């Protein structure tokens, strides 16, 4: 599936998402990849654009823009967080529950889909930093019985399962029977070993494959290397040190109140169905986490500010590989996207999008402008809707003044932009070809 480019250079993004189960399509755009990403000097999240004399007006414009996006595109509710050198803003619009009409709050928790991959990749990189494993270890060193059942599994490395170059079959691909099985039994509690079996005896592709199966395997490697539970490792290494009090691993940790209901038009009749009860264990290390805009903003700030990883590890995370589709490259649990065709002057962004039953998520950092944006919403509409996009347009047009930041000399030139364009069979989106 190829991306269309509309008039005035505007790219028709499908929420600019890379989902738990969807491969993106893109147009080729020139992009410079830096050798290093310097630490970001982001302001304290307690400030609401306080350093900008026009902040009150800008905040009002943000809220008007957000309210209009919800009205026009009809997601039940959404929340957006923006962190800039001028300050921060967290806004909400709509409801978290259609039955009770409870308003969304900035602290509400949403499933974040494939943004989970970024957490999983960081946990593995931390283990590599500690010398507990190497990204160039073969999969058979850690999971010999699993590797033996995968085509050419003994020659797959940990790095390859993280960046999609392993060629291992995506267990959520269009032809996978797991899609129908999740639809038939959405409450089933899946085990990682059951999930990876859908890739057994499948030919290893010579092309890039979206690493849903790779990240399930990555979670299993983490557990094997530590003798611990994946959710505990992510909590001990990322969540607890950063004080992310609203971030959890669904099905493995108890989630307190403030969990937003998820909605999707399952039968295509125009009405939204509540799919909140779907068990997320089928996505596990590839997409089962829950968070909110405040925590994800802090997480992004810590990652790109050098708080979570060494510079070498961050550089490895930001080493991108071609997906074989025009305009898409993938690192270790991160994308790099040139947003200029969509929002001129914004530059490239590093981050991920996510899809979970009845929810969409978006988290990107823009080093040229020193902007972090997170948006979460509780629906999976069949139209192009991402409240972060009009908010970013408003920010650049009216609020984010001054010259763009200089960036390091490029080491690679790649063409890149993302559009998530998937079809969920009932609850799960699968790759568009």
Structural account:
This protein starts with 29 loop residues before the first strand and ends with a strand. The chain has a single domain, classed as DD-peptidase/beta-lactamase superfamily (Beta-lactamase), CATH 3.40.710. Helix 1 packs antiparallel against helix 13, helix 2 packs parallel to helix 8 and helix 2 crosses helix 9. The N terminus and C terminus are likely disordered. It has a 7-stranded antiparallel beta sheet with strand order 4-3-2-15-14-13-12, sandwiched between helices. Strands 5-9-6 form a 3-stranded antiparallel beta sheet. It has a two-stranded antiparallel ribbon with strand order 1-16. It contains 13 helices and 18 strands. It has 433 residues and is of the alpha+beta class. It comes from Hydrococcus rivularis NIES-593. This is Beta-lactamase-related domain-containing protein. Pfam families: Beta-lactamase (PF00144). Keywords: Signal.
Quick structural gist:
The chain is α+β, with helices and mostly antiparallel strands and 433 residues long. Helix content is 29%, strand content 19%.
Strand and helix layout:
Elements (H helix, E strand, L loop, with lengths): L29 E5 L20 H19 L3 E8 L2 E11 L4 E2 L6 E2 L3 H15 L9 H4 L1 H5 L9 H6 L14 H7 L7 H5 L15 H15 L3 H13 L5 E2 L13 E2 L8 E2 L9 H4 L1 E3 L1 H12 L6 H7 L3 E2 L6 E2 L4 E4 L9 E9 L2 E8 L4 E7 L10 H12 L10 E6 L7 E3 L2 E3 L3
Helix pairs in contact: 1-13, 2-8, 2-9
Question: How much of the sequence is in beta strands?
Answer: 15-25%
User: Largest sheet, order of strands side by side?
Assistant: 4-3-2-15-14-13-12
- The proportion of residues forming helix, as a percent range, comes to 25-40%
Look at the structure and name the CATH superfamily.
DD-peptidase/beta-lactamase superfamily
| Low-pLDDT stretches | 1-54, 401-433
Number of domains: 1
State the helix count. 13
Q: Predict the CATH topology.
A: Beta-lactamase
User: What top-tier CATH class fits best?
Assistant: Alpha Beta
Largest sheet: 7 strands, antiparallel
InterPro entries: AmpC-like, Beta-lactam-related, Beta-lactam/transpept-like
Pfam family, one: Beta-lactamase
Keywords: Signal
Protein name: Beta-lactamase-related domain-containing protein
């Amino acid at each position: 599936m190829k991306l269309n480019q509309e008039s005035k250079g505007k790219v028709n993004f499908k929420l600019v998402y890379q989902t738990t189960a969807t491969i993106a399509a893109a147009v080729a755009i020139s992009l410079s990849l830096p050798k290093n990403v310097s630490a970001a000097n982001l302001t304290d999240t307690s400030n609401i654009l306080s350093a900008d004399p026009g902040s009150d007006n800008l905040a009002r414009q943000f809220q008007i823009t957000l309210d209009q996006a919800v009205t026009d595109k009809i997601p039940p509710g959404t929340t957006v967080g923006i962190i800039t050198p001028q300050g921060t803003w967290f806004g909400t619009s709509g409801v978290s529950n259609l039955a009770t009409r409870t308003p969304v709050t900035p602290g509400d928790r949403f499933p974040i889909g494939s943004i989970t991959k970024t957490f999983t990749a960081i946990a593995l990189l931390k283990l590599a930093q500690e010398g507990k494993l190497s990204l160039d270890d073969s999969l058979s060193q850690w999971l010999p019985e699993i590797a033996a059942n995968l085509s050419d599994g003994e020659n797959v490395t940990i790095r390859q399962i993280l960046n999609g170059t392993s060629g291992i079959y995506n267990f959520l691909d269009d032809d996978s029977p797991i899609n129908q099985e999740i639809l038939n039994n959405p409450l089933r509690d899946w085990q990682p070993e059951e999930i990876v079996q859908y890739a057994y005896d499948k030919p290893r592709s010579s092309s890039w494959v979206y690493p849903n199966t790779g990240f399930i395997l990555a979670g299993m490697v983490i557990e094997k290397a530590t003798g611990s539970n994946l959710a505990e490792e992510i909590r001990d290494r990322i969540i607890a040190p950063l004080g992310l009090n609203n971030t959890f691993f669904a099905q493995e940790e108890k989630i307190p109140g403030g969990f937003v209901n998820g909605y999707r038009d399952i039968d295509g009749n125009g009405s939204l169905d509540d799919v909140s009860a779907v068990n997320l264990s089928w996505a596990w290390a590839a997409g089962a986490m829950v968070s909110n805009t405040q925590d994800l903003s802090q997480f992004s700030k810590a990652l790109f500010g050098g708080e979570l990883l060494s510079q070498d590890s961050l550089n490895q995370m930001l080493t991108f590989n071609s997906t074989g589709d025009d305009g898409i490259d993938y690192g270790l649990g991160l994308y790099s996207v040139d947003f200029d065709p969509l929002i001129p002057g914004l530059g490239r962004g590093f981050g991920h999008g996510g899809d979970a039953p009845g929810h969409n998520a978006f988290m990107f950092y823009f080093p040229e402008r020193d902007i972090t944006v997170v948006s979460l919403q509780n629906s999976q509409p069949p139209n192009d809707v991402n409240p972060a996009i009009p908010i970013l347009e408003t920010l650049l047009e009216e609020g984010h003044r001054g010259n763009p930041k200089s960036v390091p000399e490029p080491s690679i030139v790649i063409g890149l932009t993302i559009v998530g364009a998937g079809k969920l069979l009932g609850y799960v989106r699968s790759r568009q070809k």
